[in-house]
Task: structure prediction
Amino acid sequence: MAINESAPLPAASEDWHRLSFTGSGKEYFGIWIVNILLTIITVGIYSAWAKVRRNRYFYGNTVLLGRGFEYHAKGMQILIGRIIVFGYLIIYNVLLTIVPLVGIALAALILVLLPWLVMRGLRFSARVTSYRNVRFNFVGGVGGAFLAFLVGPVLAVLTLGILTPLASRWTYRYIGNNMRYGTKAFTTDPGLGAIYKTWFLSALIILLGLLIIGFVVFINMSIVFAVIDNPQGIPPELQVPMIVMGVIGYLVVLLSFGIAALVYHAGLRNVAWSSTVFDGKHSLKSDLSRFGYVWVTLTNVLVTLLTLGLMRPWAAVRMARYVNTHTAVRFSGDVGEVFAIVQKDGSAVGAEFMDFEGFDFGF
Result:
């Protein structure tokens, strides 16, 4: 779908300007199927260029105020980053087999390097993205990445998820406070209490799943006791009921944890984006319906599975359209003047990034 590159900017107002997605599943299917076929033919090498084509389509059809975003990465940059990571993994596995101590040392090394790799990945992704000919940038350091992407997740795991909101807050603050559009900064400070509200709802969903499993086990206690009384093997007449009970338990766990994760993701995005400000005065907003997001995601997965993957392009476009519809920006002052200032200050920054943006390490 064509985008009007000369669309006039609205006058000053306090209105929320929502993003939109102008692509279609039919259009993207053509890109997707060619990407799949060429990736298979080239034994995975073309996947780097496939990512570029995919991102250019989705970025270009993500529209704000009549203009789409742009993705400037080159396939070779992505391929080189993947070759570096793939080469490291080969060396690691070979050495782990031949000289285990060296392999362990390499595993420790990647943990040390991980914050740097994440930081470089975020910087690359920002610098190859532009809007109205002005590049984004990311200026975060290794220390912040270490706290957000190593310390935070470890604390979340060690506390059985209780400190997950704190880890999420560190992550969004690290990304949001170090993002730039031209020379203008974003700032974000999501409230911990608001994040815990959506976490509590997710925790209740998981608890409900565990209670359902407990109830299924309780009403089938005769089967459980029969298995306990026969530790050498399950009686033939109980094998089918045990399999059914196991499948039900597995599906309940999968659904409860999956739905809880989706609810948390949507709620967290709403809190983080809605606490983000651009240039100290322009506000961002996300108002995803948490269970609406769950519905779109689960039905996308179901349709993709039932069609053996052929409806994957439709699902991807559907999700992009849903998320963009629930994302908005409100500008303080005349919108034309806002972008005139950004474009004037950001042109030199964009020129610096045209020659070398680095490599995409896939993090």
Q: What stands out?
A: The chain has a mean pLDDT of 86. The chain has twelve helices and eleven strands. The longest helix spans residues 236-274. The first strand starts at residue 17 and ends at 18.
